[in-house]
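User: I need a structural model of PLP-dependent aminotransferase family protein from Comamonas guangdongensis for a docking pre-check later this week. Nothing fancy, just the predicted structure tokens so I can convert them on my end. Input:
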Amino acid sequence: MKRYEQLAGNIADSIANGTLPPGAKLPSVRQTCASRGVNPSTVFQAYYLLEARGLVQARPRSGYYVATGATSVPEPDYSRPSGEQQDVEVSELVFQVLAHMRDRELAPLGSAFPDPSLFPLQRLAMAQSKAMRRLDPWRTVEHLSPGYPELRRQISLRYLATAFAIDSTELVVTNGAMEALNLSLEVVTRPGDLVAVESPTFYGALQALERLNLRAIEVPTHPRTGVDVAALAAILERHPVKACWFMPNFQNPLGSLMPDASKESLVRLLAERQIPLIEDDVYGELYFGMHKPRPAKAWDTQGLVLHCSSFSKTLAPGYRIGWVAGGRFAPAIARRKLMSSLTAAVPSQEALLLYLEQGGYDRHLRSLKGRLQGNQAVALRCIANHFPAGTRASPPEGGYFLWIELPASIDALELHRLALSQRVSSAPGHLFSADHRFKHHLRINFGQADPLELEAALKLLGRLSVSLV
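Assistant: Understood. Predicted structure tokens for PLP-dependent aminotransferase family protein:
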């Protein structure tokens, strides 16, 4: 654990036990540096982390204060999967549960996307209109796959923000991150192969394994620090894993963030065994702290990490523009893309290229992250005050999901159906494991435009869960 995490943990404990009551001012950065023997960067990172968890609030020109009504919600423990290979059959349940997500009348706590009104849709529309006016007809056929060279260069510049470079020729532009992830999986596996996934894991990963007739083995995962690399090493000793599909940054559904040392160990472990890592990094830009977390790809020296991301969760959900930095597999992915869907939509590529060239993306991200961070504080407060005793929740340092562990007597699928009757959706934990083991867990989306509506929906969900205890 890093020093800023230790400091944040100590302060969180003081808030939880009442030593620092609501409204109390935290020691100044200078005082904390002197008393703890740390540098200012460590203190700022600790305070940013506490702010992301909704425990403290910054007041301009005054300092940091314990948030009014701040309550520390205990986090879930490590997951404990069976450690055995499993067939995957989740799609029917996923389709049943998600069938209601298109209903605008529902409070979208179960949605996989932030509220569309949080995105700069008017600026994007203007960019698309301008892009179409300047579109050279030959461009619609020149760069079918791997995508526009200019857009790939813009994407490669984003990697420089995390202090490592990606050659734009390694990038393949896709129809959203899901196509990038699916193409990557197709290239590195064959039917019947075994793939390691997190526990819990994104249901889209399970659906991809099911479609390709692959088997899953789930790896213990912590809601704060992600994949247990030592546990994965033990699995690799016993099972013929052919690929891994992990989300090191703000994992869906946990929100976990693997420390850099763990990412480095993970990449080194897999390189020793020549096992490809499919890295899903669609939430990496939505960090609440000072620095963007580095992807596992940053430690890849052998081209074994296939890093997948998109603009769908950060900028333009309907444009369906994603990409994969495929390492040694990039040519095979480009060919597979050409055979399956030819190219990503030309107007969408043109519009996003123009938007990125004009600037403003980072300004939009700062605004979006501020909204999400504030909403997370609202959500954690609601869980602490309105959900049953014994409820646990993971406070992520980015993204827009909370993983909630309810008392064992509550069936999350029953709660989901009951909440639907009250016009509130949720994502029950059954969706996030090949064996549906997370029966009293929920994934909650706090990426709403109106925090009052978010609060009302969570209060209702809390009351319903209390009724089921």
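Before docking, keep this in mind: The chain has 16 helices and 14 strands.
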